[in-house]
């Protein structure tokens, strides 16, 4: 008797769960709303404060950038209607739209532009854009819709940066009224969506900004669930709790894509996976560096971890970006690697030893790639110790000159400009570069001051090639973005991996 | 009599203060062993060395460690929990938004664990001295041998993915608005009168709470069973039988009443462990509580958050143990008489 | 007639010991038992299913992981890390906890008070949180995992043992030993300690199970042993990324952990029953 009633209870409980539809598709798709499972939250809602590539699409929903990139990564007008970099690279004149309003209804003016890029930086706030615009001397306001950025050193990539990380216009009056802390709690921008609900690390709800100046988004309400765990993101799209997600394991994309209602994509983006190297210690010897590079089977890495979709790279620039060097290839060649090692007196009995640092979980399959590399090097008698570090410690270690010979690294550059690839990764004065030797550092520094676009690009192509040939860098793969979506949901595919809610629609 | 209890409870509180003080010293010292420079972590990547030096002084890192500790403690007492080096925002706010979620989850887990434990204990006791008892007992040990985070993975696979009857990410379905009054979601939905949201939140909590509850239950089962066995050795059970009371009545009125005290005090201990268990379970279910904040902070070596969250977990454990001790005092007639 | 002691006749002890023995044998003879080198990768043969499943191969009886490594071999080698951590960490925690418990229970007075307060402070940390924070401070690595477990779990021994030592210390033969002029040290070693051995052994068996779990947890959040050491916790962490594609990759190491922890738990339970060790609250956690 007793036992029977217990069983009945269990049966009832299960039935109850079904009736209330606990997990059944979160809600019927009504054509006006979308739910997204996103891997990470914004660092804070102050868009100028911290750079984080994955947060870019979230920021872009709420805020606008002076210059926009289209799906093919061309630079197109946004808040700026036109801009022009001076020949000497020392100033940038621009005009702005006059029909833009913030979410609170106040119009955007030149004051807001000056506030965002100049006043906030000059006030000494702890902002990441302060470093982007450290050469900015002033923004002169010429008329209510035009002005000039004045630099104290040539800044040829100013237009690229106006479309890149951290360059989002914030409202001066509102921010001064509520303070920075107040702004982070109730942020407003000029972007296509307003934030109606925000729960840190959990959920963001956007609602369409009805007075948006640009193309009106088709989706009225967007819910972004922050789901850190890749397998939970997979489960969320599979069960219909989310309509779109990114950065799930490649194999899962293939499996989910085969399901009738889902669409799986593996898209190459403007992100490179490479080894950042030191020029000293065990890597003092160029033969060793080149042998290490020749022993890497990039095609196998791509096959094993990215379903073959990640393009093997020989220079630090993905195909299709200006810095890419057509026809140049650094081959996978074990014999060549052994020869180079022998030339420097190394052999399997007297192996080269070095340490490689890697992150675990900073980008998809990072730890797997690192472990696969260690095995590949073992083939030619190079013994490598693996050291797992947190991504946040890279800069600190680099500053203290404590990085090991090699570090597995991923670098995102939505603009595609070579300065933000090679320029940053090999500039000895920047915290990203582990390579501190004069070459190719000096040439990179020269290119930073080169105002002529064609000369600059040609210069970077040459540096890219030389850097690989001298073993100053080891590009591995062009990274891919995995994406799984409901088959009925359309979105615009950007070459840099942006997935923008404003570009979505139901078919 | 009530005054005595109040006095004893007060005493427990007073004893907790030095304990917390030492906990905070321990936390501070352990995290200072770490070869990490918090100043370098809290500036933008391309800050200059001079900027880092300035930050170091601003953060008081050039001072000797005991002095740093005293400054931190002083700030803490004034309600200033420091600034996160990664989020660059106040730690107090971060903890305040995540703590209610964790408390809610732990309480639900404990309720489920307690319920399972009581039912299981009674069940095993009911089958005492039979073969079924031995089987159930070995079963209990088996359940005990799978830690909570593996239960979490298992439940998520079975109920969330394969059967798809329960949700397993976050606290609420995406289409529902979240009321914010106290931060406790279940409470808030009730206050604002949203039964649908309440039920939905409850469903989201079932799997994580189950994972916690299942692994908290076995010790409760075993203690209840053994206390019941002890109680049944007592004379009054025998006398009750002689008086012709039904077995059911004896169990409820006499057996359970006496056996519940040791069980209760064990549940206090279990609750403390369960609080620690929320950390991994939260990660598996993407549940926005302190555990997720903590793991994030560890990933970013964000010392102010790690310190504060660590301390908060301890405060919670101490509060639970004080509450359980107080309940114990109130319920135990023998102690009360003393 | 020879009679086995009661503990050796307990079904639970026998079950527990046999399971432990099997795992110990796996660990000791791993190089002979494992069909493949556990670290040998095959990037062209990743996530192979077990041999009996369609597409499986007899070369990899339980299939391969995301780097194409043999799961069975890794499981067998993983027993080494699990047992190393279990044995060293538990023994360390026992030694530290027992020493303090003897001191507290036998000497009493301010020593007892002081140790009691330290235990209180430790108990106010959830063990997982304390272990994590210690690992943040110490850095990853198997020796630090062991150290963290010792530093977290000594209280489990100290708490229970202290009460037992207090009871034993009151007994007549201990008083007699003191009257005979034995030193404190000798009294504790010769008279008090042997009386607490049953309890100590029982606690040790249970602690070994806990240590295995803690190691798995620390791997799971990425503070594991090095990448060249196969460990079950690490295997779960890896396999979690591909749980839908290759659920068996999660299931096997979870099963291994379960078997070992169950073996230690059932052994401890059998010992508790047959050695008449006084145990209530410490059965778990």
Write a structural description.
The complex is a heterotrimer of chains A (507), B (338) and C (285). With 507 residues, chain A is of the alpha+beta class. Among the domains of chain A are: 62-179, Dipeptide-binding Protein, domain 1 (Alpha-Beta Complex), CATH 3.90.76.10; 268-480, Dipeptide-binding Protein, domain 3. Helices cover 31% and strands 23% of the residues of chain A. In chain A, the strands form 4 sheets. Chain A has a 10-stranded mixed β-sheet with strand order 8-9-10-1-11-16-12-15-13-14, with helices on both faces. In chain A, helix 9 packs antiparallel against helix 11 and helix 15 (438-448) packs antiparallel against helix 16 (453-469). Chain B is built from 14 helices and no strands. Chain B has helices spanning 2-33, 38-41, 49-58, 65-77, 91-126, 131-144, 148-162, 185-191, 195-231, 235-242, 247-284, 290-299, 303-331, 333-337. The mean pLDDT of chain B is 84. Chain C is mainly α. Chain C has one domain (6-35, 61-280): MetI-like (MetI-like fold, Orthogonal Bundle), CATH 1.10.3720.10. Chain C contains 11 helices and no strands. Chain C has helices at residues 6-9, 11-28, 30-33, 71-107, 109-123, 127-138, 142-169, 172-179, 184-220, 232-240, 247-275. Residues 280-285 of chain C have low confidence and may be disordered. The chains are: A alpha+beta (507), B mainly alpha (338), C mainly alpha (285). The interface between A and B is large, with 53 and 53 residues.
């Amino acid at each position: 008797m007793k036992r029977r009633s217990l069983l009945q209870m269990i049966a009832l409980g299960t039935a109850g769960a079904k009736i209330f539809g606990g997990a059944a598709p979160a809600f019927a798709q009504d054509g006006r709303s979308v739910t997204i499972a996103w891997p990470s939250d914004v660092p804070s809602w102050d868009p100028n404060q911290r750079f984080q590539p994955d947060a870019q699409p979230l920021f872009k929903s709420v805020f606008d950038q002076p210059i926009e990139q289209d799906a093919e990564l061309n630079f197109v007008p946004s808040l700026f209607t036109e801009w022009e970099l001076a020949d000497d690279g020392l100033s940038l004149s621009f005009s702005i739209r006059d029909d833009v309003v913030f979410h609170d209804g106040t119009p955007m003016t030149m004051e807001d532009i000056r506030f965002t890029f100049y006043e906030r930086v000059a006030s000494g706030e702890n902002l990441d854009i302060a470093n982007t615009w450290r050469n900015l001397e002033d923004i002169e306001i010429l008329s209510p819709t035009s002005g000039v950025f004045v630099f104290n050193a040539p800044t040829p990539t100013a237009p690229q940066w106006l479309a890149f990380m951290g360059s989002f216009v914030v409202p001066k009056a509102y921010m001064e009224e509520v303070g920075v802390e107040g702004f982070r709690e109730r942020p407003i921008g000029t972007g296509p969506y307003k934030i109606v609900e925000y729960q840190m690390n959990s959920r963001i709800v956007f609602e369409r900004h009805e007075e948006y100046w640009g193309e009106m988004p088709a989706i009225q309400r967007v819910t972004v669930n922050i789901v850190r765990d890749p397998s939970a993101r997979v489960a969320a799209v599979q069960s219909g709790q989310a309509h779109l997600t990114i950065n799930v394991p490649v194999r899962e994309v293939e499996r989910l894509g085969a399901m009738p209602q889902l669409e799986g994509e593996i898209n190459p983006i403007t992100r490179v996976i490479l080894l950042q190297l030191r020029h000293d210690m065990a890597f003092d010897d160029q033969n060793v560096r080149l042998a290490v590079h020749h022993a890497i089977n990039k095609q196998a890495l791509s096959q094993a971890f990215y379903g073959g979709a990640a393009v093997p790279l020989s220079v630090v620039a993905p195909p299709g970006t200006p810095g890419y060097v057509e026809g140049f290839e650094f081959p996978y060649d074990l014999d060549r690697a052994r020869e180079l090692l022998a030339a420097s007196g190394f052999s399997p009995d007297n192996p080269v030893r070095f340490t490689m640092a890697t992150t675990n979980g900073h980008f998809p399959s990072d730890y797997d790639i690192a472990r696969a590399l260690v095995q590949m090097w073992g083939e030619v008698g190079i013994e490598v110790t693996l050291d797992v570090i947190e991504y946040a410690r890279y800069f600190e270690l680099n500053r203290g000159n404590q990085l090991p010979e090699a570090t597995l690294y991923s670098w995102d550059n939505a603009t595609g400009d070579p300065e933000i690839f090679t320029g940053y990764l090999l500039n000895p004065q920047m915290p990203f570069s582990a390579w501190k030797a004069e070459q190719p550092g000096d040439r990179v520094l020269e290119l930073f001051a080169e105002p002529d676009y064609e000369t600059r690009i040609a210069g970077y192509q040459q540096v890219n090639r030389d850097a690989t040939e001298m073993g100053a860098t080891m590009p591995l793969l062009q990274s891919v973005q995995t994406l799984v979506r409901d088959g009925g949901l359309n979105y615009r595919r950007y070459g840099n991996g942006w997935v923008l809610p404003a570009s979505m629609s139901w078919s | 009599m009530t005054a005595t209890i109040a006095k004893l409870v007060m005493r427990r509180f007073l004893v907790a203060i030095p304990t917390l003080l030492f906990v905070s010293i321990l936390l501070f010292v352990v995290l200072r062993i770490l070869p990490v420079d918090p100043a370098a972590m809290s500036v933008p990547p391309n800050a200059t060395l001079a900027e880092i030096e300035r930050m170091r002084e601003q953060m008081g890192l050039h001072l000797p460690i005991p002095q740093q500790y005293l400054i931190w403690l002083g700030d803490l007492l004034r309600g200033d929990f420091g600034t996160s080096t990664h989020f660059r925002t106040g730690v107090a706010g971060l903890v305040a938004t995540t703590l209610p979620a964790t408390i809610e989850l732990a309480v639900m887990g404990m309720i489920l664990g307690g319920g399972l434990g009581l039912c299981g204990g009674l069940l095993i006791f009911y089958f005492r001295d039979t073969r079924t008892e031995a089987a159930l007992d070995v079963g209990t040990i088996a359940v005990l041998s799978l830690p909570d985070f593996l239960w979490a993975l298992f439940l998520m696979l079975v109920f969330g993915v394969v059967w798809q009857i329960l949700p397993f990410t976050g606290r609420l379905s995406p289409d529902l608005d979240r009321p914010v009054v106290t931060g406790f979601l279940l409470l808030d939905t009730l206050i604002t009168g949203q039964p649908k949201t309440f039920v939905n939140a409850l469903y989201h909590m079932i799997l994580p709470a189950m994972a916690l509850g299942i692994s908290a239950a076995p010790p409760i089962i075993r203690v209840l069973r053994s206390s019941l066995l002890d109680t049944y050795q007592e004379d009054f059970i025998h006398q009750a039988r002689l008086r012709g009371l039904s077995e059911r009545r004896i169990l409820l009125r006499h057996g359970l009443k006496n056996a519940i005290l040791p069980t209760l005090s064990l549940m206090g201990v279990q609750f403390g462990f369960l609080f620690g268990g929320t950390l991994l379970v939260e990660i598996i279910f993407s549940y926005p509580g302190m555990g997720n904040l903590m793991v994030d902070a560890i990933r970013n070596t964000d010392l102010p958050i790690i310190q504060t969250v660590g301390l908060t977990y301890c405060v919670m454990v101490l509060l639970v143990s004080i509450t359980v001790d107080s309940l114990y005092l109130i319920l135990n007639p023998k102690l009360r008489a003393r | 007639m020879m009679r086995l002691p009661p503990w050796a006749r307990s079904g639970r002890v026998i079950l527990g010991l046999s399971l432990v023995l099997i795992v110990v044998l796996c660990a000791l003879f791993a190089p002979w038992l494992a069909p493949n080198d556990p670290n040998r990768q095959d990037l062209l043969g990743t996530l192979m299913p077990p041999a009996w499943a369609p597409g499986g191969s007899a070369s990899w009886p339980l299939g391969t992981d995301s780097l194409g490594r043999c799961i069975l071999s890794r499981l067998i080698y993983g027993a080494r890390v699990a047992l190393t951590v279990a044995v060293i960490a538990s023994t360390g925690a026992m030694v530290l906890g027992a020493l303090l418990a003897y001191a507290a229970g036998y000497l009493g007075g301010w020593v007892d008070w002081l140790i009691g307060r330290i235990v209180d402070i430790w108990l106010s940390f959830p063990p997982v949180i304390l272990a994590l924070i210690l690992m943040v401070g110490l850095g990853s690595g198997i020796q630090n995992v062991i150290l963290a477990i010792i530093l977290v779990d000594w209280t489990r021994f100290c708490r229970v043992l202290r009460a037992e030592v207090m009871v034993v210390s009151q007994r007549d033969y201990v008083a007699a030993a003191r009257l005979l002029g034995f030193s404190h040290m000798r009294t504790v070693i010769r008279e008090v300690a042997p009386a607490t051995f049953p309890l100590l052994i029982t606690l040790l068996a249970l602690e070994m199970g806990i240590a295995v779990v803690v190691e798995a947890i620390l791997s799971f959040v990425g503070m594991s042993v090095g990448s060249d050491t196969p460990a079950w916790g690490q295997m779960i962490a890896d396999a979690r990324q591909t749980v839908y594609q290759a659920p068996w990759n999660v299931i096997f190491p979870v099963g291994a952990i379960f078997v070992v922890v169950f073996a230690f738990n059932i052994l401890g339970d059998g010992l508790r029953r047959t050695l008449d060790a006084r145990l209530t609250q410490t059965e778990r956690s």
